[in-house]
Amino acid sequence: MGRGTRLEIKSAPASGSETRSRLKISMDLLKDIAESSVTWRTIKEDGLNLEYSVPIPKSIADRIFQELENSLEYFTGNLTLIKVFGKVYPLPRQQVAYGEPGVTYTYSGVTVPALPWPEPVLNLRDFLLKLKGIKYNFVLVNRSHLFPNERTFY
User: Binding positions for 2-oxoglutarate (predicted)?
Assistant: First the structure.
């Protein structure tokens, strides 16, 4: 782990032009969401200033989730392990990172490299840029195995 870590990727099944056309449909739906239709809420307490919203309607979010489920490629090998107090454990989730060239994320002695942005993730990043004016340079996608009956990305 850490130095000399091999980068391996586990591919999810993809179906060529059919997958591309499905991606385009849902991503086009994202472009149709007007900034003015998004309602923002704020929580302010001592040391906290949180602004949040649910900007993507459930029907569109479900389609995007399915596209991500079918197209994301997760790390395998050493990048699926974590070192805690000197002992190595398998991660209880699948994960992959996407971002700008050269960006990495390090935690618990593991350095996670950013792979190039896949189209669906890049479209979500661009949607957030349109909504809030923030251009993210990295995302760590986690697919939980803790709740196998729930569809969970975080």
Answer: 142
